[in-house]
Write a structure and sequence with these properties.
By secondary structure, the chain is of the alpha+beta class. The chain has eight helices and 15 strands. The strands form three sheets. Strands 1, 2, 3, 4, 7, 10, 11, 12, 13, 14 and 15 form an eleven-stranded mixed sheet that branches.
Length: 257
């Protein structure tokens, strides 16, 4: 006959669980998550909230389902910093695929045009890139890829229409091209709030005359926070509550410069 746990050990575990729940409920600060591709930022937030029995959870700016990188969760009273974080500068590492334009601006979308790219020189690329630096107007993508629970792949849905498609003033601080091997081009970019990386790829491709879309996109910075300080989502979900709490960025450092 199996040995049953004593009432004392059962009470001990119960008290420990209650203590963890109380501790987690009082957390005020930020958790830096390295989001993988294939899961929406909303689903990451929902999963963390459920796993650690959190009461109030917000975020500092969403990420496309196809993108990876820094996603900032805000817990407790720190949710009040959401608008300030969303309005902050951010940086991305981007891989572009020349020769193809899609309705979403990335490889998850439907191809709407394919054109030769072999004639695009580095000089032409840099000249077109220069036109998309500093202040300029940008219209958001009309369609986006979304993940449907229980289904493989992505579904393409309209995410902007009417006034939502109006051009808006955005700003790009700089680009740094790391790889120029058409059809693949890799670069990093530092931008302000409102810049759409997928729209950037679309507009650059049109300027080059060959089309382009995002092959990979990774957010590396948001405000003063770096993805190097974030924990991969899967590992975060495996943490003991005390270890999760130990990763909390205090409120005083969320908006630090």
């Amino acid at each position: 006959m199996p040995c049953l746990p004593s009432s004392t050990s059962f009470r001990g575990r119960t008290m420990a669980n209650l203590a963890n729940i109380a501790m987690l409920a009082e957390l005020d600060g930020a958790i830096l998550v390295d989001k993988p591709a294939g899961i929406s930022a909303h689903d990451v937030m929902k999963a963390v909230k459920t796993r650690f029995n959190l009461v109030r959870v917000g975020h500092g700016g969403t990420l496309d389902v196809t993108a990876t990188g820094l996603f900032i969760l805000l817990l407790g009273d720190a949710t009040r910093f959401s608008n300030e974080l969303m309005g902050g500068d951010r940086s991305y590492s981007v891989a572009l695929a020349l020769g193809m334009e899609t309705d979403t601006g990335d490889r998850a979308g439907r191809t709407v045009a394919e054109k030769p790219f072999a004639g695009v020189t580095r000089e032409q690329f840099d000249a077109s890139l220069k036109e998309l630096r500093g202040d300029f107007y940008q219209a958001p993508p009309e369609f986006s890829a979304v993940k449907i629970p229980g289904k493989t792949g992505y579904e393409i849905v309209r995410t902007a229409e009417g006034d939502e498609l109006r051009e808006r003033l955005v700003h790009v601080y700089r680009y740094d091209v790391a790889v120029f091997e058409p059809p693949r081009v890799e670069l990093s970019m530092a931008v302000t709030k409102g810049v759409s990386v997928r729209a950037f790829a679309r507009d650059l491709g049109r300027a080059l005359g060959c089309g382009a879309c995002v092959a990979d996109c990774r957010r590396t910075r948001c405000g003063c926070h770096s993805v190097e300080d974030a924990m991969p989502f899967v590992k975060l979900m495996e943490l003991h509550p005390a270890d999760f709490a130990a990763r909390l960025v205090p409120k005083s450092r969320i908006l630090a410069r």
